Amino acid sequence: MRAVKKSASASANKLVVFGEFFLDLVFYDLPNVPRMGEEVKTTKFSVSPGGGLATTSLVAAGLGTPTNAITRVGRDALENPAWKQIKAKGITIDGCEIDAELPTAMTVCAAFGGDRMMITYDVINRGLERLFHRPQVQKQLREARHLHLACALWPPAKWKLARLRKQNLTLSVDIGWNTKLLKSPQLPFLLREMEFTFPNEMEAKAMTGEKTVEAAAHKLASWVSVPVVKLGQDGSLAVKDGRILRVKSLSIRTVDATGSGDAFNGGFLHGYLEGWSLEDCMRAGNVCGALAATRAGGSSAVPSRTKLKMLMSKLR
User: Fold this and answer.
1) What are phi and psi of 44, to 5 degrees?
2) In contact, 195 and 238? CB cutoff 8 Å
3) Above 80 in pLDDT, residue 298?
4) Does position 97 have pLDDT exceeding 90, yes or no?
5) How far is residue 147 from each of residues 22, 170, 224, 256, measured CA to CA in Å?
6) 14-61, pLDDT tens digit by residue?
7) Which of 10, 41, 184, 264 is 20 to 30 A from 208 via CA?
8) pTM of the complete model
9) Separation between Cα atoms, residue 118 and residue 199, nearest integer Å
10) In the chain, what are the domain boundaries?
C-alpha cells in the first residue's frame, strides 16, 4: 500500500468521504418476507443516516479519524435527526450542498434472515460529481490525505479521477450494486486510479465475470492497487503482491446487515490512515462490519478505539 501524504498540521483533515446520503427506514426482525399484495408487520423499526457516505464517515470519525463528508441533501434534512447526527459526531459538512427543490434521498430496508432488500428514491444524487467544482470542496481536498468515493461513478466519463490523484491524494471506492457500471468496459480504467476498491463477493464476480471470488480478486488486482473483497461472516480477502490474504471475522448474531459493508470501509480506512498493515486494516474492517450487523443501521455499533484493538486481537 502507498503511504498517505504527511500533513503540515496535526489538525488538518485526514479523510474526505464523497458520496450519497440517504435517510434509511429499516424494518427488521420480520416474521417472513412479504410477497406482492401482502403486508407484514414487525415491532422493530429504526430511522438512521444511511448510505456509504454516512456509515463510512460515522465509523471513521467514531474511531478518531478527522473526517469530512461531501454530499447533497434537501432542505428537509436540516431538521432531521439522522442528518443532525452527522454533524453531532464531529464530521465536517461545510462542503455539502443543500438543494432547495428536491427531497433528500431515502431508502426503505427490510431485513430478514441475515440479509435485506431495499427500495430507494434518490433523484437528488444525479450529477453528484459536479460538487467537486465547489470552492469549499476543493479546499477540503487540498487539506485531505485520502478521498473515499461512496457512490457509483456513473457515467464514467464525468468522473475526472486523474485530476484528483494529481492533488497527491490516495483514492478508494465502493460503487455498490450498479449494474451498468459493473458491466461497463470503462470500469477498469476508473479502478486504475484507486488505491483500494471494496466490493462484496457478488459485486467482485459481477465486475470481473469470474466464477470464484479468488479469480475475481486476482483479476481486480490487475486494475487496482489493492482490491479488498468483503465476505460477510467469512471475513475479507485482499490481493497483495499477487498473493491472496484472508482475514476471518467475528462470530455474531446478525440483526440487520444494512450498512455493514460501509462500516467495514470506515474501519479499514481508519487503520490505513493510522499507518497499519494491510492485515490489520482488514481486521479493523471486519470488526466494524460485524458489529454493525448486530444492530439496526450500519453506524449504530461503532466501537471505541480500545474495544476495536481488543476485538482485532481475536482475529490474529
Assistant:
1) -115, 120
2) no
3) no
4) yes
5) 20, 6, 15, 27
6) 999 999 999 989 898 899 988 899 999 999 998 889 889 999 999 999
7) 264
8) 0.91
9) 18
10) 15-21+51-95+129-313
> Per-residue confidence at 256, pLDDT binned at 50, 70, 90?
low
Alpha carbon 131 to its chain centroid, in Å, reads 18
* Grid cell in block for residue 109: 430496508
Classify residue 4 by its DSSP letter.
Answer: P
Cβ contact 54:86 at 8 Å? yes
The amino acid that residue 133 corresponds to is: H
Strand partners, 97: 72
User: CA nearest 82: which of 25, 138, 43, 123?
Assistant: 25
Task: Please name the amino acid found at residue 248.
Answer: K
pLDDT value for 10: 41
Cα separation of 104 and 101, whole Å?
A: 10
Average pLDDT over residues 292-296: 84
Q: Please, what CATH class does the domain formed by 15-21+51-95+129-313 belong to?
A: alpha beta
- What pLDDT score does 8 carry? 46
Distance (Å) of CA 191 to CA 114, 127, 173: 30, 20, 8
Cell of 275: 499507518
Q: What is the DSSP letter of 168?
A: T
How much is the pLDDT for 7? 47
Report pLDDT digits (tens) over 126-178: 999 999 999 999 999 999 999 999 999 999 999 999 888 888 899 999 999 99
Positive or negative CA dihedral for 8, 275, 173, 76?
A: negative
Q: Is the dihedral of CA 258, 264, 225, 5 positive or negative?
A: positive
Taking the C-alpha atoms of residue 166 and residue 278, their distance in angstroms, rounded to an integer, is 24
Q: 267 and 312 in contact (C-beta within 8 Å)?
A: no
What whole-number distance in Å separates Cα of residue 289 and Cα of residue 301?
Answer: 9
